[in-house]
Write a structure and sequence with these properties.
Strand content: 15-25%
Shape: globular
């Protein structure tokens, strides 16, 4: 029985970030679990040269500090991404910085990469059980850094040996100037330094790039070309959007920050398909943005994704969403 509809009014009575903190606390202590039944064999998926039990993953942003890394697999995810993490601790933007747009089944956040820093995360990841599942870390740069490209190298060198994949987050809208790293020249320099560091240290973690859904056609061309040239292990399409669709009804639509949830689905899926057209089968794509139903998952897969990530939908649907998506996808595949 799914108890989340009974719990949700209590959580929605709390300030959104407080509810988020409570959810992470509960998962970390094993108080929240998913369906314990084994995944249907038809859901097995290959991602980053690994077989995972299903293609439904958790996007970065839920467990920012890796407090519940192992326990998150108890919810039924096929893979999990924690973070984002920056080299030095930073508090992020002032509260309030998280807003529910309930009428739109959406969320706006402007956290600003609040992070306890790489050493705090390294201590937690060193205690994880690699057998629990495919785990990745989302890497960002400090707001005041004079060498943001160097920040990505620093975090990869420290955390790369502790995870299965590392995601370069160059698409957060809440760190001023960060999205400029998606430009061809800046991105080429970033990838060169990160890949060189990975080779020099013998780091086996897959390297993934997370891009914004707001990129131009020219940006898509450049990113695709670099991803192929550098033999990236994957692209995540995409992050939150700075756009505000005309359909938004909530009064919080005026808040600054990145919009996620149901309104992001059309844009993120269109960009996903456009990227697949450019990279073909040479770079695996992970689709994220606005996934609430199995039909949404199927649409992402049809647009070219090999796996998907969810996050904002959990606010409205609860942890039972993961099992519903997997059961629906298994039924669809058996048909």
């Amino acid at each position: 029985m799914d108890l989340y509809p009974l719990i949700r009014p209590f959580l929605f009575a709390l300030e959104p970030e407080r509810a988020h903190e409570l959810a992470v606390w509960a998962v970390a202590r094993g108080l929240v679990r998913g369906d314990s039944a084994p995944d249907d064999a038809v859901l097995k998926t290959r991602l980053f040269e690994r077989e995972i039990p299903n293609p439904v993953g958790l996007a970065a942003g839920f467990d920012k500090q890796a407090e519940a890394a192992d326990r998150l697999f108890d919810l039924g995810f096929g893979f999990v991404e924690v973070g984002g993490v920056t080299p030095l601790p930073q508090v992020g933007n002032p509260r309030p910085r998280l807003f529910r747009l309930a009428e739109d089944r959406a969320v706006i956040n402007r956290f600003g990469l609040n992070s306890e820093g790489v050493e705090a995360m390294a201590a937690r990841l060193a205690r994880r059980d690699p057998a629990r599942g495919l785990l990745g870390v989302n890497i960002g740069a400090n707001k005041e850094s004079a060498d943001r490209t160097g920040d990505y190298v620093t975090v990869l060198e420290r955390l790369g040996p502790l995870v299965d994949f590392a995601t370069l987050n160059v698409s957060s809208p809440n760190t001023p100037g960060l999205r400029a790293l998606q430009g061809r020249d800046e991105l080429a320099r970033l990838l060169d330094r990160v890949l060189e560091a990975r080779t020099r240290h013998g780091i086996k973690a897959a390297l993934v790039l997370k891009i914004a859904p707001d990129v131009s056609e020219a940006d898509l061309d450049d990113i695709a070309a670099l991803a192929i040239e550098c033999r990236l292990d994957g692209l995540i399409v995409g992050n939150t959007t700075i756009g505000r669709p005309d359909t938004l009804q909530s009064s919080h639509r005026v808040e600054t920050g990145g919009l996620s949830g149901a309104p992001l689905f059309p844009l993120s899926t269109r960009i996903l398909a456009a990227m697949r057209q450019r990279v073909g089968d040479r770079v695996p794509l992970i689709g994220t943005g606005g996934i609430f139903t199995v039909e949404d998952v199927l649409a992402k897969l049809a647009a070219g994704a090999v796996a998907v990530q969810v996050y904002s939908a959990l606010v409205y649907e609860g942890p039972g969403l993961v099992g519903r998506l997997k059961r629906g996808l298994a039924t669809a595949r058996r048909r």
